[in-house]
Amino acid sequence: MVTAIVLIQAAAERIPEAAQEIADIDGVTEVYSCAGDVDLIALVRVSKHEDLAALVPGKISKVAGVLNTDTHIAFRSYSKRDDEAAFAIGLDDAQ
Fold this sequence. Notes:
Layout: E1 2-10, H1 15-23, E2 28-33, E3 40-46, H2 49-58, E4 66-73, H3 80-88, H4 91-94
Antiparallel strand pairs: 1-3, 1-4, 2-3
């Protein structure tokens, strides 16, 4: 599984519509509107790099209002929630 974070600059008047259109694309798991240098952040999860190579320029970049994308491929995931779940395994049985 390949996870990527896509930073998206969008035309201000199209942000809500572009966000929803991007969220509806297969492989896009979440889209956030945000403040700062980018307007939208999309989380993408696909089976292989070739799928990502097709999805970003072929679908996300073609959504009306998308001006620019910057894609970052994730190597590892770190989460406090994952750590807590791992340490909690078997606790119910021990009591």
